[in-house]
Write a structure and sequence with these properties.
The complex is a heterodimer of chains A (about 110) and B (about 110). Chain A has about 110 residues and is mainly beta. In chain A, about 0% of the residues lie in helices and about 50% in strands. Chain A is globular. Chain B has no helices and eleven strands. The chains are: A mainly beta (about 110), B mainly beta (about 110).
């Protein structure tokens, strides 16, 4: 089966600009996660969707970050306006509902804010 | 209480040696402990995982040892190979209460010398 797809793979923007990332999860996976991975650290959850509903967005900086999952499949994560500290890799992961706990990660989008 | 502490930060092992990475947690509600492997430019991939009802799980050269009373778990890589050179993350989750959100350690960069 195809893995989690993300685009773009790399993005360079100036601070105060906006940026959007796209994720296509594994077919049939109802749960979708967005993580932020700062260089030298482990991934940190930003938001979790179950189908097209938000389950947990407690760590999402809502003043500048937003995310949506239309029709319960693809998802977009947006940052507006970007700050220097937003430079990181943004990872999307998906999981099948059921007994499997495994999360499948995409390759990530590396964002550099200058 | 939500932290997962991982050590060492980096590790250099000779080919054929044993690599050992340790993690500690505080939240006794955690009930799922995976290890993820991440190569440069790639997303994390599940390596092996354990539930707290067993003290050890082995898959090929990879073994998780779990000490519930000490709230610690470790990854052992036997017969380490240069291809094992990657960053390893431990994680923990309370699937019963948090919809499966993973809390990651900060990672260990493993280098296996030929």
């Amino acid at each position: 089966e195809a893995g989690v797809a993300q685009s773009p793979r790399y993005k360079i923007i100036e601070k105060r600009q906006s940026v959007a990332f796209w994720c296509n999860p594994i077919s049939g996976h109802a749960t979708l996660y967005w993580y932020q991975q700062i260089l030298g650290q482990g991934p940190k959850l930003l938001i979790q969707f179950q189908n097209n509903g938000v389950v947990d967005d407690s760590q999402l900086p809502k003043d500048r970050f937003s995310a949506e999952r239309l029709k319960g499949v693809d998802s977009t994560l947006k940052i507006q306006p970007a700050k220097l500290e937003d430079s990181a890799v943004y990872l999307c992961a998906s999981r099948s509902v059921g007994t499997s706990f495994e999360q499948y990660f995409g390759p990530g989008t590396r964002l550099t804010v200058t | 209480q939500q932290q997962v502490k991982q050590s060492p930060q980096s590790l250099i092992v000779q080919k054929g040696g044993i690599s050992i990475i340790n993690c500690a947690y505080e939240n006794t509600a955690f009930d799922y402990f995976p290890w993820y492997q991440q190569f440069p430019g790639k997303g994390p991939a599940l390596l092996i995982a354990i539930r707290p009802d067993v003290s050890e799980k082995k898959e090929g050269r990879f073994t998780i040892s779990f000490n519930k009373s000490a709230k610690q778990f470790s990854l052992h890589i036997m017969d380490s190979q240069p291809g094992d050179s990657a960053t390893y993350f431990c994680a923990a989750s309370n699937y019963g209460g948090s919809q499966g959100n993973l809390i990651f350690g900060k990672g260990t960069k493993l280098s296996v010398k030929p």
